[in-house]
Amino acid sequence: MSIDTTFYKRCIQTLEQALELLQQSEADSINYDMYRSACVKEFEIILEQTGKLLRKCLKAWFHSPKVVDRLVFKDVFRQAAHHDLISLEEAERWLEYRDNRNNTTHDYGKGFAETTLKLLPRFIHDAQAIEQVIQQCPHD
Question: Domain span at residue 87?
Answer without folding.
Answer: 6-136
